[in-house]
Specification:
Elements: H1 10-34, H2 41-51, H3 62-90, H4 93-96, H5 99-124, H6 134-160
Helix pairs in contact: 1-3, 1-6, 2-3, 5-6
Length: 168
């Protein structure tokens, strides 16, 4: 049987990006609560990308902040999922179905996402993201964004191509 290459998939990118984005959102919420900032701080931070700094005030209801914040966060996560789809398509065929290979690539991708979102964009446009502990943000983006996305792509590759041999 001929082995096919993984097609570039908009659907996988969008869905896997949003799934990883939900994982990251939950982890960010736990971190925020543990830091004493409250459960809604992360969604207000995301909402402020669209609504500006009033998103942090009672002027913007919690419901509106959650709706806008989740929409912004999931849209950005879906975009990163599309980027990972492009990256995944460039990976060596024998690496796409290997958990450890994809996990390493995914975690590095998560760090890249943190670098772009926090160190490039936030510094110029959204400084409230820099209030969060940056080392923990690197870890969170690697473990709760990059890793789940990579594992979802690995599982999809293994379903698509049963010829992928598990690594020894």
């Amino acid at each position: 049987m001929e082995r096919r290459t993984t097609p570039w998939s908009v659907r996988n990118g969008l869905l896997f990006g949003m799934a990883a984005g939900l994982m990251l959102a939950l982890a960010e919420t736990v971190l925020s609560v543990a830091a004493g900032d409250g459960a809604f701080r992360p969604v207000r931070m995301s909402a402020a990308v669209v609504l500006g700094t009033p998103a942090f005030t009672p002027q913007v209801s919690t419901g509106l902040a959650v709706a806008v914040g989740l929409a912004v966060h999931l849209a950005i996560s879906a975009g990163w999922g599309l980027m990972y789809t492009l990256l995944d398509a460039m990976l060596p065929t024998d690496g796409r179905g290997r958990w450890e290979f994809q996990a390493a690539v995914g975690m590095l991708f998560g760090i890249f996402v943190w670098l772009v979102n926090f160190q490039l964009l936030a510094r110029g446009y959204f400084p409230w993201f820099l209030d969060a502990p940056q080392f923990l943000q690197i870890v969170w983006h690697a473990v709760f964004m990059g890793l789940p996305m990579a594992l979802l792509f690995t599982a999809a590759e293994r379903r698509r191509s049963p010829l992928v041999e598990p690594s020894p």
